Amino acid sequence: MGVKARVTVTLILIALGIFQAVSGIILFLAPKGPRSGRFEVFGVTKYTWNEYHKYVGLIIIVVAVLHFILNWRMFVNELKVFTRSKKS
Question: Is residue 52 predicted with pLDDT exceeding 80?
Answer without folding.
Answer: yes
